[in-house]
Protein: Latexin
Amino acid sequence: MASGELNPNHYPAQRAAKVVQHYLTAHYGSPYRLFGLQKDTADSGRKYQLELLVHELISNVRKKENCSAEVFFAKGEERTPAQVEVSCKELIKNNTLDQEEALFQQYKTNQSLLSAHDLPDRYGHMEPDTKPLWHLGIVASSFVMLNESTEDTLYNMAQVANITQLFESLVLLHDMVSQEIPRWKLLFTWSPSEGVKVLQMEQLPHCHECEKPLKTD
Structure:
């Protein structure tokens, strides 16, 4: 296996780092907790070793945490999920349990199902009370992006086309390498105590009529 330092701003390092972001979001995210990356370094080959600064995206907490990670992309014609190991001394502590419990009770007691669509809309806007559902869509889609990521992809969430408790969602992803917008249908559950559990995920046929969202950060 070849080794050597990669420029953190080049795509090979960014792709490995993005997989780590999907891993952290899938395993530790919630309607009020998402994670972003500040910088990364890596060595080349199929195995990437990274040093990252992780920060929490939703809160106003400015603390950043040093994490180390190892990402391994298996060889072979059959696509297999990347193997990811992450070590953080402690994930950024931002107690959102009260907010999560309030949202959980809201959708448990609501006489009508919570639902939303086009998050964000084609102009990048969404109503404030729909943002927790957008965040849930990001957490659930991180399972898909983690499973689908290879050395040749770089996924971001583009849009939650629709989401209805408990919880069926159509999400649009954005592969920044191919510029394709794959559509995935997800069925998942969420609770403050157990987090997001993805029960089913299915990639839908390509839609030529689907308009690409303008915001794909």
